[in-house]
Amino acid sequence: MQSKLVVGGVCSEPIRNGPEVAPTQYGGTAKVQVSSTPSGLLDEFATIDFTNAITVSHDPHKFPPLTKRLNIELAFSSILNAHIQSACYLVAALTATSLPSLTMLSALGNPRQAAAQILNFGLILSTAFMMWKGLSVIADSPSPIVVVLSGSMEPAFQRGDLLFLWNRNLLEDTKVGEIVVYNVKGKDIPIVHRLVRKFGTGEGAKLLTKGDNNVADDTELYARGQDYIERKDIIGSVVAYIPLVGYVTIMLSEHPWLKTVMLGIMGLVVVLQRE
Amino acid sequence: MHSTIVRAQNVFGFFTTVAFVVAALIAASDLTVPRAPKAEVTANSVQVVKGRPHYYSTKKEEYAVIRFTMSADLSSLFTWNTKQVFVWVSASWPNATSTDGELSNEAVIWDSIITNPSADHLMNIGPAAMKKLVKSAKGKSIDPKRGILALKNQKPKYQITAPTGKLAETNDVVLKVHYNVQPWVGVLTWTPQIEFLGWKKLKGGVSKAFALPAIKKKETAEKKA
């Protein structure tokens, strides 16, 4: 439930300079470096269970790049989980700092006041949740606001930019040229890319995507044997844009100590504020 | 009530409010600038060749290689809130079985990112090309001249195919010019379907219908013959 409060995490096409996984490393866990941007601006570390990765695709002779890629995608989904978690921290932190009465938890001696504060906290959380879900219903998208996690749509979108999605086809079909956020079958990684081909109309139309900053289209990113995505794979088309605002969530997920610092400051505030 | 923390909270709250209001005003300012883009596109030489989707594939598909000539004036799309304009040329064609002539297939054959000089530094290009790009605007932060395009017998960036792998002898193919304006903040806009305030539809931008030819024989075969 709590993870749904999150400003949704999106990575668009995580893989550029993936790790070279030597066959000897198969079968155990290993710490690998995942370069999340084409330029390798920010590298992230993740532990991958290679036994797991290999069952997904162990065909290194036939498709070496694909095997490599899947490994990294597995790694990336774990990073994404961390990201979602940190966004929860952020919501909690922002809520707490924006509410003076909450910072006066030292007044716990008075049970009536304490109860009011707890109710107040619950109210704020539920308001945030309702707004998120309300937006979700209006836009018909499970995640109406997303943060860009990679540079494959540069220069249009940088890491940390906030995108607003719309997932209804009121007047016309989703068409070529729109920037869509889609999920790949069997993988929990939403990707922000532009539609470049469309064959057919309506629900069954076959769609192909490509990142503006990538040389090749996304066929390689799709599930094995999947050449196109369909309308149902798309969770929304980008309609509006705010730069940088989402960078906080990326900072928190990439520098876990920031979370500690943030919680520490909050704790200090609670202790020091004696009014 | 008047502790440092409360003050810090107030300052932060005020800062975010101001930032969002300013961003909203900037986004709204887009509407005050009229847009009157126009474009012309014609298909030149069209070929259909056989090929494979990737190196390891055994599947043979037909690929259309459409050379085209395009001239466009998108200069009115460049304002202070324009980060980039994404321009593309797509080929559209109806389904073989359709009778209503609906262009139900569309594929991009060429695209280009045109940054406003204010966003040049974000382009993913080599240092030499970057130097040239920055120099072309000479300290200007808005350069509408970049919106004027003239491509002559341009080779397509993408060779297109269809899921069936058959594309030769398709009739009623048209080329269309489209654009997508990416703002620094605010709403993204695409080639409009309706006129809205000062924003006109794209004038022209659709080619005459043409047919894709039969598969071109391999040149080696021709030489032997």
From TrEMBL, chain A:
Catalytic activity, as annotated: Cleavage of hydrophobic, N-terminal signal or leader sequences from secreted and periplasmic proteins
Subcellular location field: Endoplasmic reticulum membrane
Topology in membrane: Single-pass type II membrane protein
Enzyme Commission number: 3.4.21.89
Name of the top EC class for this enzyme: hydrolase
InterPro entries, per database record: LexA/Signal_pep-like_sf (IPR036286), Pept_S26A_signal_pept_1_Ser-AS (IPR019756), Peptidase_S26 (IPR019533), Peptidase_S26B (IPR001733)
Gene Ontology cellular component list: signal peptidase complex
Keywords, comma-separated and alphabetical: Endoplasmic reticulum, Hydrolase, Membrane, Protease, Signal-anchor, Transmembrane, Transmembrane helix
Coiled-coil region list: none
One GO molecular-function entry: serine-type endopeptidase activity
Task performed by this protein: Catalytic component of the signal peptidase complex (SPC) which catalyzes the cleavage of N-terminal signal sequences from nascent proteins as they are translocated into the lumen of the endoplasmic reticulum. Specifically cleaves N-terminal signal peptides that contain a hydrophobic alpha-helix (h-region) shorter than 18-20 amino acids.
Subunit structure: Component of the signal peptidase complex (SPC) composed of a catalytic subunit SEC11 and three accessory subunits SPC1, SPC2 and SPC3. The complex induces a local thinning of the ER membrane which is used to measure the length of the signal peptide (SP) h-region of protein substrates. This ensures the selectivity of the complex towards h-regions shorter than 18-20 amino acids. SPC associates with the translocon complex.
Family to which the UniProt record says this protein belongs: Belongs to the peptidase S26B family.
Protein name: Signal peptidase complex catalytic subunit SEC11
Source organism of this protein record: Hymenoscyphus albidus
Phylogenetic lineage: Eukaryota, Fungi, Dikarya, Ascomycota, Pezizomycotina
UniProtKB/TrEMBL annotation, chain B:
Coiled-coil portions: none
Domain of life: Eukaryota
Pfam short name (any one): SPC22
Main location per the UniProt record: endoplasmic reticulum
Compartments (UniProt record): Endoplasmic reticulum membrane
Keywords per UniProt: Endoplasmic reticulum, Membrane, Signal-anchor, Transmembrane, Transmembrane helix
Record-level GO BP terms: protein targeting to ER; signal peptide processing
Membrane topology: Single-pass type II membrane protein
Extent of the signal sequence: none
Gene Ontology CC terms, in alphabetical order: signal peptidase complex
Keyword Metal-binding: no
Purpose: Essential component of the signal peptidase complex (SPC) which catalyzes the cleavage of N-terminal signal sequences from nascent proteins as they are translocated into the lumen of the endoplasmic reticulum. Essential for the SPC catalytic activity, possibly by stabilizing and positioning the active center of the complex close to the lumenal surface. Essential for viability.
Family named by the database record: Belongs to the SPCS3 family.
Protein name, per record: Signal peptidase subunit 3
Protein's organism: Hymenoscyphus albidus
